[in-house]
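So, could you explain this one?
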Amino acid sequence: MNSVYRGRFAPSPTGPLHFGSLVAAVGSYLDARTQGGAWLLRMEDVDTTRNVPGAADSILATLEAFGFAWDGPVLWQSTRLEAYAAALEQLKTAGLAYPCACSRKEIADSATRPAADGGMLYSGTCRAGLAPGRAARAWRLRVENAAISFVDRVQGRQEQQLARDVGDFVLRRADGLFAYQLAVTVDDDFQGISDIVRGADLLASTPRQIWLQRCLGFATPAYAHLPVASNAAGEKLSKQTLAPALDSATAAASLCAALRFLGQPVPAELARASVPEVWAWAFAHWSFAALPRTPSIVPAAPG
């Protein structure tokens, strides 16, 4: 095993896995295994307001039925709250994090334009301190007026000006839950992740995570953002867009469809093979260079 390469797949238990989830899992798994690396599994269940009872068990059972094998135990974000709190304290002590009293309505009313992630750009109302009589609702990270750039292995050179495109972003939410950006950054460092292969829907989040890595003294992994499976309306396949759950009874055919989506020249007869046979073909023929470079694709019908 390549002791340097450590990849991961990090689903959220908000519902069953669907084709879009499978694409990300297949891409990250093959990138790790064909380089002799480790492939870790993390359950991103820190946002308890979105977790669906039974979804985590369903995800694990589906991954097993589809032939995925991960290294080591599953890491559950719900067990990592002390680590996130410690990281937040480190940022507070360094003067990089500050309390924010603004409500969503106040943020929307004061925002001059949308942020890069589709939300509203925070105007920095509380950056210089809370106004008299205002109590902290959330904690935010200060960003600098400088560009964050990186070269994505799939999408090429990316650049984001955090102050202009995102603004100071949330680390701990008004409901007391730790934000995705903090949790994922802390966990990637904790697990020693060297290579992150995931969907291009998270491309806009990467500069924030790189900035957090720098603030916390973490190393920056290599990134590869795969095309996202979308429906005919251009919406990412998800629970919200009613993407159907994966069916373990058709695992081999679904794996073949995911491989074709990722630009791999899968022979038609492979869809009638067993799951181990599909993986054997994939390990022997995986081509990272064949990955489509577009951020979003409507998948072809299985067959």
The chain has a mean pLDDT of 92. The longest helix spans residues 19-33.
